[in-house]
Amino acid sequence: MAGKTVKKIVLEEHFSTPEMSKYATDVVKTIDDKFLDYVKPRLMDMNGVRLEEMDKYGIDMAVLSVTSPGVQLEPDAAAAVKSAKHINDYLAEEIAKHPTRFAGFAHLALQDGKAAADELERCVKQLGMKGALINGHTNGEYLDDQKFWPMWERAEELGVPVYLHPADSPTMPSNEAGYPEMAGPGWQWGSETAGHVLRMIYGGVFDRFPKTTVVLGHMGETLPFILWRLDSRYAMLKHTNPLKLKPSEYIKRNIMVTTAGSFSDAPLMCTMLALGADRIMFSIDYPYEETSQAVEFIDNAPLSDEDREKICYGNVTRLLKL
Ligand code: MN
Are 160 and 104 a contacting pair, CB within 8 Å? Predict the structure, then answer.
C-alpha cells in the first residue's frame, strides 16, 4: 500500500571531523574500501550534500551525532574531556547556521563520569542540544557501572534521552573470529548493544533512574523480538540483585527505538507489537544508509496514517521537546 508523505525528523545521523576520525582506525578495518570512499566525505560535510539529500527526500530535520566510536576510545581522560567539549562547540556552531534543519546530541567523555554529566548539562542548557549519543562502552566499561551513574542522574534531571549507539566490542568475541562479516554492524554491534542494555537493566540503572529514556537504533538491536523469552528465563536464573519489574517491563518503559539502518516491514511489525507505535521513531543512519531507501520504506510501510505520523515526527518531537 502506498503511504502518505508526512513530515520527517531523523535522529541517528552522523558526522565526523579529522580530530574524531583518528579513533575510527579499528572500526574501518572490516569495511570495504569503496564504501569508505563514499561515506568519508559525507561524514565530514555538514551542509553540502547532507542538506541536498534532506531537501531531495523530504527530511525536515536531522539530529546530528559524532560517528562511532569518538572519544570513548581515548585512553587519556583529560584529553577525552577536552576533545568532547571541542566537538560539541563545533556541532553547536554548525547547527546555528541551519537551526530549523539541524539539532544535536552531545558527545560525552565518560572516562570522567562527573565531567560527562557536567558537559551534558552545558550542552543542553547552553548549546541547546537535545540529549546525548553514546557510542557503546568506554574503553571496555559499560554504563551499568556506578561510576557512570552521575550521567544517568543528570540526564534524568534534565529530562533528556541518551541514545545508545553501537561500537565494536572491546575484544573480538571468540565465535566471530575469522569472519569479518560478523564484525561491526553486520552482527557484532547488535549483540554488543543489546547486551549493554541488559547489563543496565540487571545492574539496576532503570530501578534507580526510572524516568530515564534510552534510545536504540536498528529497530531495537533485536530486543523487541525476545521480550517474552527474557522474562520467561529470568524467572529460572540466579539473581545477584533482584529487579522490581520484569526485564521486558523496563524495555517497554525506558527504551525507545529508531528505524535507523533497518528498513524492513517484518522487524517494524514485530517492534509495533512488542513496544507500540508510541516508542518507535523514524531515522536513517546517514551516511551509512541511503536516505532514498529509508523514505521509500517508511512511506510504504503497512501503518495507519496516525501511526506513520507518530513514527515520522510525533514521537521525536515529544521526546526531544522540539
Ligand atoms: Mn549509526
Answer: no
